[in-house]
Every structure is written in C-alpha cells, then in structure tokens.
Amino acid sequence: MSQKTFDQSQKKAVLLLADGSRFEGIAIGKIGTIGGEICFNTGMTGYQEIYTDPSYFGQIVVNTTSHIGNYGVEDEEQESDSPKIRGLVVNTFSQDFSRPTGTDSLQNYLDKNNIVGISELDTRLLVRHIRDKGAMNAIISSEDLTDEQLAAKLAEVPDMNGLELSSFVSTKEPYFVGDESAPYKVAVLDLGVKTSILKHLSYRGAYLKVFPAKTSFEEMKEWAPNGYFLSNGPGDPASMPYAVETAKKIMEEDYPLFGICLGHQIISLACGVPTFKMHNGHRGLNHPVKNLVSGKSEVTSQNHGFAVNREDVEKSDLVELTHVNLNDDTCAGIAVKGKKTFSVQYHPESSPGPHDSRYLFDQFIDLFKS
C-alpha cells in the first residue's frame, strides 16, 4: 500500500540556533513557529516512539537518520497519548508510506498534533555543530517572520537548566495498568513514563497504579504496593525536590525501588549524589554500557541530557557504581548499599532499541520474592 499524503512543494522554513547559526529548508508538519532546546537522536528506526517519549518535552529533535516518514505511523507505537517533542528537524522527509499496518502518514500525524518541523537540511552538518557547541535553544518557523522577530522569540525560550517539566507531562489522576489479580503490586511515580515500560512491568506479573508526579509517599503507601518505580521524564532533576523527598522516604522503609533515567537521577539526588547538565546528552539506541556486576556489556537505548556525577558516586558511602557508559565513562547505573534500590541511566524497555537490558525488569520483580 502506498499513500501520497501532501504536496511538499514547498513552503520555506527556517531554523535559528541560539548561537546565531541559521539553516533554511522546507516546512513539514504544522505551519507555525516553535522554540525549544535542540538535540539529536542517532537511532536508525523508531521515530514515532521517539516523538511520543515524554522525556523529549520542551525539545526540538534532530533525526540523524537521513530518511524519515517512509513507514508512516500506527497506534501501537505510541509511548504516550501524543507527540511530546516541540519541533522536528530531518534531512529527507517522505510524503509516502508503504507499510501495510500504517494508519496514517507522518505529515498528517505531525499536522494533527501541532508539531512544527523543517526538512531538506544538511542534518549531518547540524549534528556536528550541536555535538561540538553543545545542546542549545533553537527556533523553527514556517511563518513569514524576519530574523529579528525570530531572534526575539528565541530569547523568550526558557533554559533547560533549572526547568521542572515532569508535572506538565505526568498523569493528572491515578490510573491502573495490568491484571488486578496479578501476584505483585507496583506503585509507579509518573515523571513522564513511557507506555512500553508499564507493559514490561505488567507482563512480569505486576499490577500497576500510576500516580501523578507530585504524589506523596504516604499516599502511594496506602495502596500497599510490593515495590515502587520512578519513571523517566523531562527537565532538570535538581528542580524536583518533591520527587527526591519521595525517593528518600521509600528508601528509609527499604521497599524495592527501581528508577530509570530521570528516576535514576532522582534516586541519586536522594542519596546526596549530584547531577549535572551534559554537553549534548545521550540519545539513540546504540549506546554501549558495561554491567560492572556481571562483567557483560549491553547495547542500550538512551535519552537524557542530564546525568549523575560519577566521581561523587565513587566517593559516596551510600551508593555503588553498577554500570558505566563505554562511550564516555559516565555513570550508567547505581545500587544503594544495604537497600533494595537500584537504577540505570538508560531504557531497558528498549522501545526502540536492542533487548539486551530487559533483565533489569526481572531483577526488580525478583526483589519482591526475597
């Protein structure tokens, strides 16, 4: 099945970076103007999962894969109820899709969800620039605005440092996932959780209650869960004292606790280990990580612009380093000494990505049996 969806003929668009770099291309998605922090993802597939990952809230994503849109979209590949990216930058954008299970074109999908984008850029040049200069704010416009007007709008975009975003993407009301008769109950603190993470926990015999980001430990405890999970999500972890306090209380009572990405950073902060904003972050599905406990290496899916300071992990009396990113030797996982708490700085649900790290969900469930 091949469907032609729109005539990309071609409204011009402009991408302006905070350092003054300017790129021209062709508009995709919604016609409009949008700003956010620009970053790049090196994954070769899974663009819909990337765009709907709440961890990208507030960001403009550059796909390094040169051809985007060719397999359309379908509901099963949503990681949340809608795209969470602020904007999109691609090289070649496909007007057609040919996957039999595809339900719509990527163009229609972006347009319906008010995502502004730009195509026909030299994304290789752009990514090298971001890699060297670091992640920075940017603005995309397919409207008739002068460079001066764009610069003024760009100046209004908030800096990601110090920005609390989880409360914007978290559920507003608790909800349940899985079989109520399952053997275990897991309380999930939704800081921007991906749907596939919930599926993996449910598949392993856990009945989940997903709580809003600012839910207190006392309220979650009333449900009498066997363990707690702190999810991935967007923004600066240092701006989230409410979640840090919740993690401290869970650990004080020594319940099983597992954190992924932002959840990992929150657990670290709860143990007195600081986080920092990375030069350009880790985003893709081919990042090598070494498990220091097993000695095995994993190819992992990652998406984060903040990280835990490895030197402080190694100095800490409370936590130990369990995983290391083999690209840059940063901290990729910790365990809390004497507690049933561990966390990783990557995505074991691997959607998209390889399945090397899914054992971590089993490791978490095994804590309920001890």
UniProtKB/TrEMBL annotation:
Residues 1-184 are annotated as: CPSase. It comes from the Bacteria. One of its GO terms (molecular function) is ATP binding. It catalyses: hydrogencarbonate + L-glutamine + 2 ATP + H2O = carbamoyl phosphate + L-glutamate + 2 ADP + phosphate + 2 H(+); L-glutamine + H2O = L-glutamate + NH4(+). Keywords: Amino-acid biosynthesis, Arginine biosynthesis, ATP-binding, Glutamine amidotransferase, Ligase, Nucleotide-binding, Pyrimidine biosynthesis. Its EC number is 6.3.5.5. The active site is at residues 261, 347, 349. SUPFAM superfamilies: Carbamoyl phosphate synthetase, small subunit N-terminal domain (SSF52021), Class I glutamine amidotransferase-like (SSF52317). Residues 11-141 form the Carbamoyl-phosphate synthase small subunit N-terminal domain. Pathway: Pyrimidine metabolism; UMP biosynthesis via de novo pathway; (S)-dihydroorotate from bicarbonate: step 1/3; Amino-acid biosynthesis; L-arginine biosynthesis; carbamoyl phosphate from bicarbonate: step 1/1. GO terms for biological process: 'de novo' pyrimidine nucleobase biosynthetic process; 'de novo' UMP biosynthetic process; glutamine metabolic process; L-arginine biosynthetic process. It is an enzyme of class 6 (ligase). Gene3D superfamilies: 3.40.50.880, Carbamoyl-phosphate synthase small subunit, N-terminal domain (3.50.30.20). L-glutamine binds at residues 55, 233, 235, 262, 265, 303, 305-306. Pfam families: CPSase_sm_chain, GATase. HAMAP family: CPSase_S_chain. Composed of two chains; the small (or glutamine) chain promotes the hydrolysis of glutamine to ammonia, which is used by the large (or ammonia) chain to synthesize carbamoyl phosphate. Tetramer of heterodimers (alpha,beta)4. Small subunit of the glutamine-dependent carbamoyl phosphate synthetase (CPSase). CPSase catalyzes the formation of carbamoyl phosphate from the ammonia moiety of glutamine, carbonate, and phosphate donated by ATP, constituting the first step of 2 biosynthetic pathways, one leading to arginine and/or urea and the other to pyrimidine nucleotides. The small subunit (glutamine amidotransferase) binds and cleaves glutamine to supply the large subunit with the substrate ammonia. Belongs to the CarA family. This is Carbamoyl phosphate synthase small chain. The gene is carA.
